[in-house]
């Protein structure tokens, strides 16, 4: 899977700013920002992201609710979603994966390694064809 466009959904201004710098400058990706789950639902169909980075704890519509709503939209039904959260105990991570998340990135994240972490999660989840590595 090739990533060109990432939608970053987080209610914290600092996380969106640092995340955008990391995704654009280090990752080389086009990035759109949403401050809430509702904003992500409005933006996603026109932005058409290849990947969504989604905060778990947000006021109003939380990450799991946003993930479920994104799965209802034709434009984002199959788009990989990675949760970003400080809540990364084993049972919490297991729950996020059960909800359909591709993976979980812990907060605070290192902006210099965030794109590589995303690439590793995507590569690990990408099915290999016959004769592939």
Task: Give the percentage of residues in beta strands.
Answer: 15-25%
Q: Provide the spatial order of strands within the biggest beta sheet.
A: 2-1-3-4-5
Shape field: globular
The helical percent reads: 40-55%
Tally of discrete structural domains: 1
Tell me the major beta sheet: 5 strands, parallel
Q: SSE string, helix = H, strand = E?
A: EHEHEHEHEH
CATH class: Alpha Beta
Structure annotation, total helices = 5
Unreliable stretches: none
Task: Kindly list the characteristics that best describe this protein.
5 helices; 5 strands; alpha/beta; 133 residues; five-stranded parallel beta sheet; 42% helix; Rossmann fold
Q: What does the model show?
A:
Helices cover 42% and strands 18% of the residues. It has 133 residues and is an alpha/beta fold. The protein has a single domain (5-125), classed as 3-Layer(aba) Sandwich (Rossmann fold), CATH 3.40.50.2300. A 5-stranded parallel β-sheet has the order 2-1-3-4-5, with helices on both faces. Helix 2 packs parallel to helix 3. The mean pLDDT is 93.
Q: Short summary of the structure?
A:
The model has no long low-confidence stretch (mean pLDDT 93).
List the helices and strands and how they pair.
Elements: E1 5-9, H1 13-26, E2 30-34, H2 37-47, E3 51-55, H3 63-72, E4 81-85, H4 90-98, E5 103-106, H5 114-125
Parallel strand pairs: 1-2, 1-3, 3-4, 4-5
